[in-house]
Amino acid sequence: MSRRDEILTEIKKSDVPVSAGTLAKKFHVSRQIIVGDVALLRAEGNKIIATPRGYVLEEKKVLERKIAVCHTKEQIQEELYTIVDMGGFVKDVIVEHEVYGELCGKMHIASRYDVDCFLKRVQQVEPLSYLTHGLHLHTITFPDEETFHRIEKALEEKGFLYHA
Prior knowledge:
Elements: H1 3-13, H2 20-27, H3 31-43, E1 48-51, E2 54-57, E3 63-70, H4 76-85, E4 89-97, E5 101-109, H5 112-122, E6 135-142, H6 145-157
Keywords: Metal-binding, Nickel
Pfam families: 3H, HTH_11
Domain 3H: 67-161
């Protein structure tokens, strides 16, 4: 893990602002190095805010979990609509390949519009789940446990959740 990744982790896990001086001591570098690292983290899209007491993340905390699902290509729309309609965000799709191991494709689907755009692209090619006869994982983020249970229940009712 790089120093910048560790800095981001420190800021994320703290309940109070983290000062550049505190981070500099922890990583045995100057305060200016930390300021530069934070600037690079911001350039990568991390929403770090500098307050008078230190750095905090602007983003609200979200929960994340992987779910195993199985369905046909024709059911992709229904599966993804179900997740976003229930308040979830689909980060990625993951399949297990016999030669390459775990293959992950970023999705970043938060709405029906995102689903529709994704489906237009999938019409031209086979989705990753084709490699595993429809079995795949999704990493889903959600604001609270109630939302996740709603998503899980809806996917179960539609027969999409995979059970070994």
